[in-house]
């Protein structure tokens, strides 16, 4: 991943190379690609749900998910990449889980922001979400259950906090302390205003659908936030939302104004449309079984295949 050297980093960020995407550390360690996708989807959903419980801005939640994806892709070669198996293979390392790494991503992302959260808040939220049955992560009464009757014991908290700090250090080391993430959300309203969509009755609905696609793209198995710049993702989300809501956009090739060509636009639109199908298929295929989060659970899952 190349370093940030231009002022335009506020709107762009480094992208991963095709070599980095060919084979991940998890696959090299024996985790099938389909299972790896399931784990990444689940960790992304955990970060999203924990962020909602902690009342964090969507910007922080999105950055945390991207940071987690970057961590597992690594800075360069496969040998430099990380997986939960490799993290636990280090000498004197505590037994870490995918939840620990996801929690660390959210914690370190929120730390320098205007809405920092304490280790106890983050760990309590993740532990609570991990205790829920599959499919109930974002039910309406989740927040009430957490606030009224759920807490970590002091012993559990000390163990979890140690794991959190280890994961935070590993993430920062792997990323070279380069945690900047440029999000398409910041461009979205400007693009919509440029296209003058708010003059139509369907303008607010178009904006809502566009932001929904930007958020669901965070969970794409194709890791769109690592492979495309925010301007391209925003443009594709607007294009798809306009098709879905019947909102009329300029008949000219307006996406070229935002430096997006037709080929990239087409790829991203297809990718955005496929996220919901991917998530639904994963949910149906897994039924009541939880996604494996520890090395032990991963090995057990692989043996069942």
Describe this structure in words.
- The radius of gyration is 20 Å and the shape is globular.
- The chain has two domains: 21-175, Cyclin A, domain 1, CATH 1.10.472.10; 185-286, Cyclin A, domain 1 (Orthogonal Bundle).
- α3 packs across α7 (119-131).
- It starts with 17 loop residues before the first helix and ends with a helix.
- Helices cover 61% and strands 0% of the residues.
- With 305 residues, the chain is mainly alpha-helical.
- The protein is built from 15 helices and no strands.
Quickly describe the structure.
This is Cyclin N-terminal domain-containing protein. It contains 15 helices and no strands.
What structural keywords apply?
Cyclin A, domain 1, 2 domains, 15 helices
């Amino acid at each position: 991943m190349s370093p940030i050297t231009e002022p335009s980093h506020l709107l762009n960020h480094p992208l991963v190379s095709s070599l980095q995407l060919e084979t991940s550390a998890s696959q090299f360690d024996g985790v099938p690609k389909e299972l790896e996708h399931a784990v990444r989807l689940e960790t992304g959903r955990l970060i999203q749900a924990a962020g909602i419980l902690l009342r964090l801005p969507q910007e922080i939640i999105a950055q945390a998910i991207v940071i987690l994806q970057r961590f597992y892709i690594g800075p360069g070669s496969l040998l430099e990449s990380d997986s939960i198996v490799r993290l636990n293979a280090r000498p004197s390392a505590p037994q870490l889980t995918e939840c620990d790494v996801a929690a660390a991503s959210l914690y370190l992302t929120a730390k320098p922001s205007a809405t920092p959260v304490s280790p106890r808040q983050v760990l309590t939220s993740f532990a609570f979400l991990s205790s829920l049955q599959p499919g109930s992560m974002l039910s309406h009464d989740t927040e009430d259950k957490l606030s009224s009757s759920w807490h970590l014991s002091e012993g559990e908290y000390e163990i979890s906090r140690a794991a959190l700090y280890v994961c935070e250090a590993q993430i920062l080391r792997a990323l070279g302390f380069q945690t900047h993430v440029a999000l398409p959300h910041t461009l979205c309203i400007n693009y919509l205003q440029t296209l003058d969509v708010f003059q139509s009755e369907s303008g607010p609905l178009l904006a809502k659908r566009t932001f929904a696609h930007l958020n669901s793209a965070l969970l794409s198995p194709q890791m769109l936030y690592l492979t495309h710049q925010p301007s391209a993702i925003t443009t594709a989300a607007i294009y798809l939302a306009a098709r879905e809501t019947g909102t009329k956009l300029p008949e000219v090739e307006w996406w070229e104004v935002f430096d997006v060509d037709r080929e990239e636009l087409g790829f991203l639109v297809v990718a955005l449309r496929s996220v919901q199908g991917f998530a639904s298929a994963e949910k149906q295929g897994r039924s009541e079984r939880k996604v494996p989060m520890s090395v032990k659970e991963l090995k057990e899952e692989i043996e069942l295949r």
